[in-house]
Fold:
Amino acid sequence: MSQFAINIIFVGGSFLLYILIAIWAKAGSTKDFYVAGGGVHPITNGMAIGADWMSAASFISMAGLIAAGGYANSTFLMGWTGGYVLLAMLLAPYLRKFGKFTVPEFIGDRFYSKNARLVAVLCLIVASVTYVIGQMAGAGVAFSRFLEVDATLGLMIAAIVVFIYAVLGGMKGITYTQVAQYCVLIIAYTIPAVFISVQLTGNPIPGLGLFSTHVDSGMPLLTKLNQIITDLGFNEYTADVDNKLNMVLFTLSLMIGTAGLPHVIIRFFTVPKVADARWSAGWALVFIALLYLTAPAVASMARLNLMTTIYPDGTSSEPIQYDERPNWVKEWEVTGLIQFEDKNSDGRIQLYNDSPAFESEAQARGWEGNELVVNRDILVLANPEIANLPGWVIGLIAAGGLAAALSTAAGLLLAISSAVSHDLIKGSINPNISEKGELLAARISMAVAIVVATWLGANPPGFAAQVVALAFGIAAASLFPALMMGIFSKRVNNTGAIAGMLTGLVFTLAYIFVYKGWLFIPGTNNLPDTPENWVLGISPLSIGAVGAIVNFAVAFAVSNATEEPPVEIQELVESVRYPRGAGQAQDH
Amino acid sequence: MSGHSYDAENYWKANLRLIIGSLVVWALVSYGFAILLRPMLAGIPVGGTDLGFWFAQQGSILTFIALIFHYAWRMNKIDEKFGVHEE
Structure:
């Protein structure tokens, strides 16, 4: 059977499973659509949060970025897990006690202002749409490879599948399909990693294999990797970074953003009790960690395998002939995500770091520039092929990558649609809208969000994980501070919260757009996106942490200069702090 | 519930103390050991690299899990002690 047929069977089979579950649990009332009836067990909920959380960025893109950046990109690992500590302690239990459907609803009630609610809707939409762009980019890569079409067509197919999928089921459909998706994606991620870890280190647990001995050379795996890549002019994989300020801010931005992203917070409204919200956060992180502890192993092992494929006789010998390139290189060339240019016309593939420091050695070897460009987003998907694993493993990883992208895109679209239909239309424009009208508005806003994200996803402002990191920065700078102050301070008032959210959002977006292009439209950036141009060396990916600090500072300053919140609001803040009497999540 | 009773105030203080303690550990393993203090830990070898690298790629994640479960467990006890738990 051809690889194409195997891929179709795995991808098609897993889709059929999700669609069956979605139909089985098809949402009836609006309440089911948003919060799944409020009765989901912490472990089930943790698994669903895991699937919601681990997107194309985690599954497809992250290991590729770590493989390329080594230690420096550990920020993704810490940032996307550390936020759960903040979520469990600073937000989730209190928002569950508050017991409403959406994040803007809490902000609107706590800051006793319709405008605050609308500003929160705006922040939510900007952060979520940016996030969906990243998902679309990742899903497009996966579809283009496994359906053997070019990247743009892959993106279109992804958009159609996401649309059908998200519109069919509400939250309930999504909760149980996401449990299924978690299972598919974790199995798909782990199996190839175990095979590769056994091949390279003899250790069946990839997370331990990372720190074990490389069987062929007898050296520790990481030492061997350092040696090979430094021979080719790259930095050491484990090298420390100089710009620690940026590394700290980037990690902080991802952590705060994790806690501020509405599609994750919304999950904590679906547990029966306040105590369950705390446990759910813990279980979610356990399920997430199963992938995140494996990812750094996948990264280093894939990098090592890539290098030894190109230089089978060691780095001091010549690399392989282009005509003898392995099959996976040929197949990825079809998508345009691997490109080869024989700069010195010797018929071989020279893969090395084109840096000034390596120039003399490259010249001595007759090399005239790096000849192989490998898109970082393909590394995880190509990993089983690079390691010569059987065809069914490749089919499995295709299904896993798509599960990751789809589940997160669906969760985000749900957050966007509920903000539009529930907070914007029902809460503000037309309070008398019927249930049916509300559901229709929810579905239309999903469709609009998909179209916008697909259009921008065709020319994403970075690799999938980097685009997603921008979304985190935006959530960190706008929503998280408002939520946290709403719970931990009785003094912050409506004017302060609105001023804080707006300055945080505008400041962060402006900094991002200056380097990434206005509204992410390519070519509209004012400065090139390179470290020399960044203020104090702070990358646009890291600016969210600064934006959050600005938000806090403005909100406190403005609140202290204006009147105290009314007594009933101070009592509301008191009441969310104590678990007793939480009841079910309810409409107002 | 009356928000201003003596017990309610102590309950909230106990929660804040636990949160602050947890966040100190949270920051220490990630921003500390894994990033800023990594050069100081460079002498401690772990499988071909150093302790800071391990904290950056695995150690901090394991610590985060322990922190959340510890917090959930302790808060349940505190909820019961102050009688604010749900039946």
In short: The beta strands of chain B are 45-46, 49-50.
